[in-house]
Amino acid sequence: MEAYTENSPRMRLDHSKKEGSEETHLLRFELEPTGNDHRFHSMNALEILRETVRILRYNSWGFLAIAALLICPLSALLLSNLLVDQSLVKRLTIRMLLIAKSSGLPLRDFISHSCQRFAEMAISSTMCFPLYITLSLLSKAAVVYSVYCSYSLKKFDVSQFYLIMCKIWRRLLSTYVWMCMVVVGCLILFLILLLAVCNTCSIFGLSPPHIVYAAMVVGLIFSVIFANAIIICNIAIVISVLEDVSGPEALVQSGVLIKGQTQVGLLIFLGSTIGMAFVEGLFEHRVKTLSYGDGSSRIWEGPLLVIMYSFVVLIDSMMSAVFYFSCRSFKMETSLDSESHSILETINFSAESVGIQ
């Protein structure tokens, strides 16, 4: 795959009329020079969403094929919990409830439900880990490659993508393993800190409601830290695909890259999380729990919700890739270096960079 080498254009998606065709609007990429300094422009969360939709329309069949072949199967397994052993979930939930009770937390419905959800997430992540390092990782790489191809005015080439993946798979897998360790580390640190705060409040004789308030404050602070960690991990995956960086170096570079754009990343993470949680809630209520009728609607509601969930995951991966380009642009805008280069030219992602002739 050849990197784009024009005179540092800033690229955007636009509608244009095609002469001699019945189609009045054809989505295309337009090269728009802006003087001597040509580059991508940094974007806010809404602009990133719009850019993502434009890219999706430009190469809709390619992205939909990625969703159908790679994302939908994993989404179906995750939503249905087919690989989750409910007996393990029950035992882990009971142990977590005992720990919560010993730390002074009252065993209210919210606490019990949170423990059960955390147990399900832990067991599901463990059982589905082989799928995460294959289907999920491959889908993320395919999405990043497709976005890059769209910006480079090239079509998605399956054979070229296969050759590239053979070359970059090890560094991509290394980054994903480090990403998992960061996420697990954050969760373990949160649990330790939560238990420490609850035990401290219990020692000082605070009432259970006050202990719950203290736990909520800790959870709120952790949610912000955890969101930043997820954003850094997502951008690190994009960096591992587009640049010759992997593992902890990709995570560090990702953390440096999103400085000044953290608020945009948090809004993207919040939107994606709300969308996924909404679809998961619908699947739980409409498909897994028979709360109405005879359950015949599961036949079409189940696949529909799986498709909806897969689409949200696809948009989230695409927005991460677009966010990467936006952050690169922001760094160039704030750089003191007088020389201006195209972002596409600075990305070490070409046939030559991975040894493909």
Automatic annotation (TrEMBL):
Keywords: Membrane, Transmembrane, Transmembrane helix. PANTHER family: EXPRESSED PROTEIN-RELATED, OS08G0107100 PROTEIN-RELATED. The chain crosses the membrane at residues 61-84, 129-151, 172-205, 211-242, 263-283, 303-325. Residues 9-21 have a biased composition (Basic and acidic residues). GO terms for cellular component: membrane. The keyword Cytoplasm does not apply. Residues 1-21 are annotated as: Disordered. The keyword Transmembrane applies. Signal peptide: none annotated. Coiled coil: none annotated. This is Son of sevenless.
